[in-house]
Amino acid sequence: MHIGVPLETLIGETRVAATPETVKKLVSQGHAVTVQSSAGLNASLLDSAFEAAGARIGDAATAFGADIVLKVVAPTPAELAQMRAGTVLIGMLNPFDDGNIVRMADSGITAFALEAAPRTSRAQSLDVLSSQANIAGYKAVILAANHYPRFMPMLMTAAGTVKAARVLILGAGVAGLQAIATAKRLGAVIEASDVRPAVKEQIESLGAKFVDVAFETEEERQCAEGVGGYARPMPASWMERQAKAVHERAKQADIVITTALIPGRKAPTLLHEATVQEMKPGSVVVDLAAAQGGNCPLTVPDEVVVRHGVTIIGHSNLPALVAADASALYARNLLDFLKLVVDKEGHLHLDLEDDIVKACLMCEGGRVVRNNGGASGP
Ligand code: NAD
Fold this sequence. Notes:
The chain is built from 13 helices and 17 strands.
């Protein structure tokens, strides 16, 4: 089959959907791969490296004109116009954006949004949310350290002792756990909170302290269990108690990293303005939920702002700041998904009995499909 890899045109998107490593594998399986000229440049991947791996370097029209198009983010209307009816598009296509899915369906393409894959063991190797959240968690700590006007580790020097930074992490999923691990490597003292009590052990095994907000009702306990590994919105009673606990911890913290997301909904507010007001001057907040409305109401998407003496970082695409590795992991996720929709003879084979294929399919034959209502979440 002909597989196309276009240059991503969204502002700030530096990743690319294939690497020379994955192109080599696709070519060895008998596919012809066209990589748009300069598609990998922002991820430190030269056209010559793609060519050496067996790709043809072409223009946008050739890449979008392929049988299968591999992309990082959803296509713009101009990009969609370059695809033929029946083209298979695979990428992070934002399954909760109805307008976007309807546009893709209207164009007659078959689209798979990998964010909608179930969180099962079999789907782990193509789990784009995990591969990219892992990078975001790492980069959040590096950015925070960069903006923080003090050392992260404790230092005992001839000129005196420097205390270790105190880091508070709200939301200990994939990004939060990587943030804990990264902050730990930099020598910080860490506390972390999540609605899911199951993460207590994971937080502690990484050397951080779990901020426990106990459940007082059966409703709170059930909400916290979530659905399919994802959180659900918590009752107001629990959120109030959590806000109190966060308020006390954030006053002591030097860096707060928030990562709490609820699929398909606005991110919950975890760090209120009244809390930021009482944080130490020079403290840093990194809000990983910036693109979903933010965990802090003071966050401005894609900006670094200073409010009440606290630096608040609202970068909405942290994986794009680690473009080479983010692309490498993402491209491997795509390669694993392709195994599910292309048979051994190299032909397209859509098996809708396969739970992963079924969950990721967004549209086919001019119709919106979305077998799971948009994602594997609630
Ligand atoms: P996510 O990005 O959707 O959310 C981040 C975290 O925020 C989650 O841990 C969530 O519980 C937490 N959160 C939501 N509301 C909160 C609140 N009010 N206060 C504090 N925390 C809040 O989650 P994710 O990182 O994509 O994944 C969540 C979990 O799914 C993982 O930790 C893991 O257990 C599971 N998972 C399973 C697989 C698999 O089995 N293949 C793969 C990836 C993740």
